[in-house]
Amino acid sequence: MRHALGLLALCIATACSSPDQFIASPKLVAQDRIPTRFSSIEVSEVSLPAYAARNEVTSSDAGVLVLSDTLWADEPTRAMTLALSRHLAEITGARVASDPWPFDGFPAARVEVRVEDLIVGAGALRLSGQYFVVDLDGRRRDHAHLFDLTTPLPEGDPSAVAQARAQTVLDLATLIARDAL
Known about the structure:
With 181 residues, the chain is α/β, with parallel strands linked by helices. 30% of the residues lie in helices and 34% in strands.
């Protein structure tokens, strides 16, 4: 009987709690086509600061990070890495995949992105950090570039944040393809 009452209490508590809300970044399609010197490109896992790698969608209020009740539908590091890979493939036409390299042989180049800031606030989403392009064939010079991208964010709700993050990752892929590939 006691076990049945405990189970009933658990069921009631679960029924009364609010369901998790998830939001996915929209899948944007790159319109730019930029040729690359590399036939294949591996994209390392995007390195995010701890607050940006959280499952909760964050925003900023007077410089203070605020967590929303909405969760990302996919882990932010994984989602941004996959989006960057997809965009680089669309833009360059090269064979692009995220690490670990799934194909036979080795990629000709590797792209690594280290995000310093991914801040939502003041009507914009700001993504800054550094990216590296390594020539794994050793025929060309390696590249290291700083980036600082801003995407307008008229509203701070989670769907607007998701749209802005997707656009900023697309902008980053275009920047990498144009300046380093």
